[in-house]
Specification:
single chain, 245 residues, Rossmann fold, 7-stranded mixed beta sheet
Length: 245
């Protein structure tokens, strides 16, 4: 009897520990919950999302009948844009922040589009293997530690179908001195080190992706925003080849 009680107590403690780890790893928009209501304003006027998000959708080449997942969807600006651009696709957004999902649901309702919004961690996606043709991500990876960046990329690889594609817009290696200075300031607030060092392509290769490319760079007051694309190969090799320097 007491062994059963110990097992139940251990299980409960493990669940609580797991939840605390998730909460510790989770970072809300701009690093603080009180900034969430200002997220759309800042992204529109300071991060130039109206410029780079349409380009991200364009490069994804989303086709009729495909399933698309927006990880860390935030207030669903990109999620809604995808659905409006290609109405005959299934679009799902996932984010860990319940407050930001409330804003996202209001935005989806206002746009009168059919989009599913789920609450979940990007590094522990609640979806089956090989269930999406495209995964997109906008301004998410610089919030994550290196460990969680890699976990997230592995999860994206898992849920993508063979020859499915990942398309990312995020902070990248500064293209000039001004952007470098800005990245030093932003780096004090968020986990941008791997991004500004230009390590995301290497991480993509290490996770198993191929056809990794940097497709565009944009100057913003947050630093350089870079667009990336990568493909899950049809047959996974033991180690994907790295891009030559």
């Amino acid at each position: 009897m007491w062994l059963l009680e110990i097992r139940e107590m251990t299980t409960l403690l493990n669940r609580e520990l797991k939840q605390k780890v998730k909460e510790a790893a989770y970072i809300p928009a701009f690093g603080h919950s009180f900034l969430t209501p200002f997220y759309d304003f800042m992204m529109k006027w300071a991060a130039r999302e109206s410029t780079f998000k349409p380009k991200l959708v364009e490069q994804a080449r989303i086709e009729k009948g495909q399933r698309v997942l927006d990880i860390g969807c935030g207030t669903a600006t990109l999620t809604v844009l995808i659905k409006k651009t290609q109405s005959e696709v299934e679009v799902i957004g996932v984010d860990a922040d319940p407050k930001v999902l409330e804003i996202a649901r209001s935005k989806v309702l206002k746009a009168a589009v059919d989009i599913a919004l789920d609450q979940g961690m990007v590094y522990e996606l609640p979806y089956p293997d090989a269930s999406f043709d495209r995964v997109v991500s906008s301004m998410v990876f610089h919030h994550l530690t290196r460990e969680y960046k890699l976990h997230t990329l592995k999860e994206v690889f898992r849920v993508l179908r063979p020859e499915g594609e990942l398309h990312i817009a995020d902070l990248g290696k500064p293209q000039n001195a001004i952007m470098h200075l800005i990245s030093l300031v932003i780096g004090r607030l968020e986990k941008t080190s791997d991004n500004v060092k230009g390590l995301l392509p290497e991480m993509l290769y290490d996770t198993g992706f191929d056809k990794v490319e940097e497709t565009a760079k944009y100057m913003t007051i947050f630093g350089t925003v870079t667009l990336y694309k990568a493909q899950r190969p049809q047959f996974r090799s033991l180690r994907a080849p790295r891009r030559s320097s």
